Each structure stands twice: as C-alpha cells, then as structure tokens.
Amino acid sequence: MLHHLMVGTWTPPGAIFTFEFDDDTLSLKMIKRTPIPEDEPISWMTFDHAKKNIYGAAMKKWSSFTVKSPTEIIHNASHPMGHDPLAASSETNTRAIFCLAAQKPPYNLYGNPFYDHAGWGNVFSVNEEGGLDKCVQNYEYLPKTGIHGMVFDSSETYLYSADLRGNKVWTHKKDPETGHLTLVNCLEAPDPGDHPRWVAIHPSGAYLYVLMEAGNRLAVYVIDENTHCPVFTHNTYPLIPPGIPNPNGKMYRSDVVFLSPSGKYMFATSRSNDFKVTGYIAAFALGPQGQVERQICLNPTPTSGGHSNAVSPCFWSDEWLALTDDQEGWLEIYRWKDEFLGRVAHCDVKEPGFGMNAIWYD
Fold first, then answer.
1. Which of 117, 202, 271, 307 is catalytic?
2. Active site residue 213
3. pLDDT tens-digit profile of 278-307?
4. Which one of the listed residues 197, 202, 253, 307 is annotated catalytic?
5. Is 271 a catalytic residue?
6. Please, are residues 216 and 240 in contact by the beta-carbon 8 Å criterion?
C-alpha cells in the first residue's frame, strides 16, 4: 500500500515536499516539491482534524494550506505573530516554532513563538474550509518564556506546555465554546538544567511525559485526577547513553517524544551539536495506563540530526516511523517489529534547510 508524507524546511526558500512510501516494496521517493512563500519556510507543520489543511510555523508568520491531494497543496493564508510588535519585526530573532491543531470544535490553531518576545501563545480561529481566519486570543505566559511543544489531553480540556526557556511545565484549561485558554498551573522543572522542550500524554490521561532538551532525559509525570495538573514521579529515563562525554552539558540536546497509535510504545530522540557525533532514538514500552514499563533501546541515529532528528510515528499502526534530518537532508522510514527498530527506506533531499518534521497524510 502507498502512503504519503509531507515535510518542510528550517530555512528559506519555503517549500513543502511530498513523499510516497510503499510498504510492500519499501520504496521511498519524493514526488512533489510545492513552492510556498519564500520567506515562510515551515519549521513545524501539522494537519487539521480532517487532513484538509496544513498549518505551519513559518518564521514570522503562521500559515495554512488547502490540501486537495498529496500533490495539490495551495497556500490560503498567512498571519503575523501579533502579540508583540517586536515579535513580528525583522530586526528580532522571534520565530514561530510550533503549532497544535485542535481535533474538536471550534478547531482553533494554537501557536507558540520562540526565542525573544515569546511570552504569549497565539490562538487562531479557522474559516469553514479550515484555513486560518484571525487571531482570537493572545494568552500570556511569562516574559522569559519560550514554549517549544504542547499537547492536549484526550478530552481536549487541558493543554500542557513545555517551556524550554522558562524551565517550566504549564497547564491551561480550554473553553469548549470559544477554544480560549485560561491558566491553571505553572510547575518548575525538576532540575534547573532540564529545560523542557516537548510533551506527550498517554490516551488514558494518567501520564504526561516531558522531554528535557538540556537535561537529555525523559521525565514521567502523573496527572492529578482532581486538579488535572502534572505531578513529577521522580522517574526519568536517559535520552543519551549515561556517561557519554557531554562537555559542559552542551554536546547534546534532546528533541521530541511521541507515542505509537496503540499507546503501547513511545519514541524519543536527541541530537548532537557536532556533525561528527550521532544523535539517538529511544523506545519505551508502556503499560495500559501509560506507566513506563521499560526502556527498550537507545540507538544511534545516522547523523547528529542537525536541527531535526524528529521521529514521527504513523497514525494507523505501530509498525512505521519516519525520521528527518537536516544535517545532510533526508527522510527515512523505520519499521518497528517485535520490539526491534530497523531502517527500511531512505530518500535524500539536497535542498536548503530540509527536513523538519514529517506528517503522515495517509
């Protein structure tokens, strides 16, 4: 069967790349390069709930694209970061870094600016076709905040945010009618050197997993049934080999964490800051409520991973994972079978800034 994936770039010129993966022959090829506004490369992209639109974190803007087919992708909107005039200025380093599409009405898009002037999140409504319509809320964090990843619980009532710059984990509650957010809680990371970058939640809602970029570890939290806030369990798992040389804690920085569709497995990655040193990918076995039963492996990735090394499990099976790299520029597909991870396909793309995260279309 054929499957399609889309990938963006870290740097201009902006483009969306469509790939075709055949799970019978294990072939992988790029079938379309779709030009988009050149100064709006997408460092993080996601689909809407119906996979009829792609949303992008696009440098100084949030963008959306109509998806008519894997090879027919049409730009329909771009909106600047409007929470602070300095954020949208070409003179500052503020950048749209991450966006999360609601899977329940009113189907808002939740976006995170990063670097300086990033103390707010941006919430956008969408039109009837799913394109970005207008900013309906700029919700406040702290002036020194830098959120890099968010996740909703399965009911989409509570939103959890990883604050890399502020070294915190935030909890917000979503209004079911408007989609607006209100603050519930802000929790310091366990260690001053952790710097949370990414969050994932088990479908049961019982466990939250927080990936620490600088701490290079995965921290496990339970969700309090009354407050819906995360509580640190004091259980952590390494995302780089324990004892590996890491001068001043600057050689490695962990990247993303995602669960497989069944909720039985979890995958997380780390990157190296030296092109001569590899990053790593870890796999974990999870219990029925989401407790980590064991760390299965911690395998080197082919390269440092560059800005990327982002793992993307497919959405219909635990079998297939995508991995992207922008050190050399490629997309790879891995097979997860009998708790072994094997690379089965590779496709080079020698384009500036390729490749950021991969999203599975079908």
1. 271
2. yes
3. 999 999 999 999 999 999 999 999 999 999
4. 197
5. yes
6. yes
